[in-house]
What does this fold into?
Amino acid sequence: MTATPILEIDGVEKHFGGLAALGGVHATVDSGKLTAVIGPNGAGKTTLFNVITGILNPSAGSIRFMGKDITNSSVHEISRLGLARTLQIKSVFHGMTVRENLWIAAQSRQGIFRPFTSMKACRVANERADALLEELQLTHLASQEAVNLSYGDVALLEIGIALATEPKLLLLDEPICGMGPAETERTVEKIRELSKRIDIVIIEHDIEVVFDISDDIIVMALGTVLARGTPAEISENADVRAAYLGDDDA
Ligand SMILES: Nc1ncnc2c1ncn2[C@@H]1O[C@H](COP(=O)(O)OP(=O)(O)O)[C@@H](O)[C@H]1O
Ligand SMILES: [Mg+2]
It folds into this structure.
C-alpha cells in the first residue's frame, strides 16, 4: 500500500468573474519529496496556493491535507493543522528585530498573544525563536531591526516566520525572486536543507533551480496541470517543451 499523499487536490476550480484561473486541477504532493510548481505567468500557480491555504475558497473541487478535508476551512484552521506559506506580500515587521519577529510568530502559534501570557508559553516561544535563528543562520543578526536586513536575509526571515508555526508542509511562492546569484544560492541551499525535515512545495520560475532541487515537478498551464513527473521526465516531455520551455522542434 502506498502512503497517503500529504496534499490531495481534486478537481479544484477557481473562477474570477468569467475567468477560470483554475479550471479543474488534479494533483497530489507526496511526503518526503520537494515538489516544484512551474508554469508561465498567469497559469494559476499563486491562485492554487491561495485556494490550498484558505485565502480563497475554490469554486469547485476538494482539497485534503494529511487525509483531512480542508476545502472550506479558514486560513487559521489550515495553519493550525500544519500547513504554512510565505506570502508574496512581505509579512516581516520592519521596526522589530529579527528575533522579535520570530518570537511573535512562535508565540502566535500557541494561539495566544497577550501581554501576560503564561511563563511556559513565553519560554517555548523563546526556545523556538532561538532554534530558528540557529537553523537559518541568522543568530548574528538577531538584534538587528528587520528594516536593515539584506534582501536575502529578509527572505530567510520570512521562511523563519512561516516555520515558527511548526508546519508539516510549507508552501513557498517564488522565494528567490529578485535575488542575485549569491543570495539565490544561499537561499536554495537552505530550502534544500529544510526539505529534509519538512515537506515543501515551491513555485519557482528559474528552471535551473527547479531541476536542481526538486524531486517532483507539477507543470501548470492555463489553470490546469499539463504534466507531472521527475525533473528527468519533465525535461523529456514533449508537451512541456512545446508549451513551456519554448522548444519549437518538440
Ligand atoms: N484576485 C483575483 N481577481 C481576479 N483575477 C485574478 C485574481 N488573482 C489572480 N487572477 C487571475 O488569475 C490568473 C492566474 O493568476 P495567478 O494564479 O497569479 O498566476 P501565476 O501565479 O501562475 O502567475 C491570471 O489571469 C490572473 O490575472
Ligand atoms: Mg504567481
Observations:
- The longest strand covers residues 19-29.
- The two ends are 37 Å apart (CA to CA).
